[in-house]
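Service request form, structural biology core

Requester: graduate student, group of Dr. S.
Request type: structure prediction, single chain
Budget code: on file
Notes: please return the result as structure tokens.

Sequence provided:
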Amino acid sequence: MRIVATKELATSIQCDAIVVGCYVGGEMQRAAGTIDQATGGAITRLVEVEEISGKVGELTKILVPSGVKATQVIVVGLGDRANLDRRAAFRAAAAPAKLLASKPRSHVAFYLDDHWDGDLLEAAVCGAMLGCQGQDLYRAEKKLTPFEQISWAVQSEAALANGRILGDAVSLTRRLVNEPANKIYPESFADAAADVAQACGLEIEVWDEKRLVTERCGALLAVAQGSTRSPRLVILRHNGGQAGDAPLAFVGKGVTFDSGGLSLKPSDSMKTMKCDMAGAATVMGAMQAIAKMKLPLNVVGLVGLVENMVNGDSYKLGDVLTARSGKTIEVLNTDAEGRLVLADVLDVAVELGAAKIVDLATLTGACLVALGLDTAGLMTNDQGWCDELAAAAQLCGEAAWQLPMFPEFGEQITSKVADIKNVGEGRWGGAITAAKFLEEFVQGKPWVHIDIAGPSFSDGPKAWLDAGGTGAFVRTLVELATGYRN
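Core staff response, request fulfilled:
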């Protein structure tokens, strides 16, 4: 997909469709006003009869408009100008892109607001790219077809380029999550990471099963031992800061398929478990964007990759594992496996000298019960660091809410036979007891855990995005890295 800047008038550009913006109250942007004048007041009349309200993402189609070379014009609502933010800009671009992508189109032009610059433009360009891409990777007849070219009326081509980088990064994450487990498994994910690293200048180190044994990654290896697919740990490095500066660490859970192990999931709960590696995919997308933007800091991305399957070698309830840190873990549920994988990967991040850590994981169904399908849970040992991440998420329009980490929750994971156990007492507060488990492996480093079990995967389509992988929190991680000060 080509993304190009244009200075042509909206009435004269040759394309399949033009998208123009209108704020609440009928306030048309310059291109919309130009088209309104060329069509004899068509948009004005639609505003007057309340067919156009300006609500964010509202779409109104004008076919074969007189005085316009494009075959159709889409008027999209931009919302209240006073409340305009990146979330509104993203959805205002993504919604018409999704509508238009229902048929193959070679060229679509966006004239939302030529005064948008910087962050708003980046969000909108990213939204337009994602809206026209679907989850139907293996359908002969696609429901959504990406455009060959998007033209954008802009003042800043730098913001256009950054929007393209963000769009490519989120698209990478979405594609990895949407790939079935017979295509994306630990080895193939690591191969994909190597391709990304080569393309954008990241350093990469891959630990195979032999290296994982040497490194004493007993918790991660236990989860992997029931699968014929051997595990991997991938380390990506962006060295944009000063040599010797402690890196910011992003850690991702990469369970490429989760059957639940011997604590077997029911079939309905297993259908979408290809998405249990969304944390790892999010880290990879963010690292790609950070490298392409050449951000001036050191960042290390680490992902632990396993399949959680069932065979005669599967780890069992009652097993006691020794994690890389030396801490012993009693296993009381083999479907609480993501925290075991992260335990060893977090220890590697600490050993690499990370100044601060963020981990992302589709960790618990309990977080969905607490916060719903669209909001991630934040848990931390450092309030200031959590506030920075929450602020980045809010700027990007990605919903996150902090959950408490009271010491009493940590008492629930005390084991009678080992240092800790991998589940709490019963089902109550499960998202928090999982986070308390992870906290045992960060050795006091400033750390935020993001439970993305809800927002990382959508069972049904939205007006601005197809179902499947969403790419949630790639943009938040990039925003966090952009404003990061060690």
